[in-house]
Amino acid sequence: MNRGIRRWLAVPGLALAMGAAAACQPQPPWHPGTGEPQSTRLNQIQVVGSHNSYHELAPESERAVRRAVAGAAEDSLEYNHVPLPEQFADQKVRQIELDAFVDTNGGLYANPLLRGATGGGPYDPAMEQPGIKVLHIQDIDYHSTCLTLIDCLQQVKSWSDANQGHVPIAILLELKDTPLIIGGIQFVVPEPWTAAAMDDLDAEIRSVFPEDQMITPDDVRWASGLLAQLSVAQWNDAFRAGGFDPVVAGRFIRRLREKVAEGLAVGAS
User: Fold this and answer.
1) Considering only CA atoms, which of 97, 96, 101, 186 is closest in space to residue 135?
2) What is the C-alpha separation between 267 and 261, in angstroms, rounded?
3) Could you report the per-residue pLDDT of 64-98, keeping only the tens digit for each?
4) CA-CA 20 to 30 A from 263: which of 15, 45, 222, 224?
5) Are β-strands 6-8 and 170-176 bridged in parallel, bridged antiparallel, or unpaired?
6) Nearest CA among 191, 184, 170, 206 for reference residue 84
7) Separation CA 46–CA 94 (nearest Å)
């Protein structure tokens, strides 16, 4: 799987988190002049997010070795995030991103190369256990405020349960399995993200969050059926009413109908 591929929680595809389904809704704004509440849609919400949200700054000894090899490129690794609950509470973060590595049997990332080279001592025993791990780059930039995916998700859920009424927290997963190649150094080779690994990912997510605390593809796939019922003429009318060029609109409509058909086919399989 290419390094840039991302998946939204939960597998396969999309979900948003967290808080009980009702509790995660913000207080709806009041429509001017009516006195009646109107619902707030997800696409009307803007939030603060963090990237590599788990990332901890490496010790000075490890940073010095990396800088000796990578030079100024080390600068991009020298940052620190506070733990997820503190991001939610103090920084008002409502979108996080986690890098996930398959570790089917456990122990694959338990002895980071750079840690051993700098005399960092034994690593956390949690890394010996089977399950998906959360880190940035195997062997060289591995420090994390939550070492396993389940631990990260449990931190999200615990904060959410204690703070009912927050807007949904979006969790972006980057599924990593790219080998690290620097000279002849023997780095850990990540396990690939296979269909079985994706099933394990789905199981880990669902071990933390119940169904009513997630938005999954099945929750929104019904929209594909409605879109598929619209005729080309109806699409054209809608786009013309919006002032769109008919030629551009036609291309968009054809492509959209293709994607809708693909979605319906997936839903039927």
Assistant:
1) 101
2) 10
3) 999 999 999 999 999 999 999 999 999 999 999 99
4) 45
5) antiparallel
6) 170
7) 9
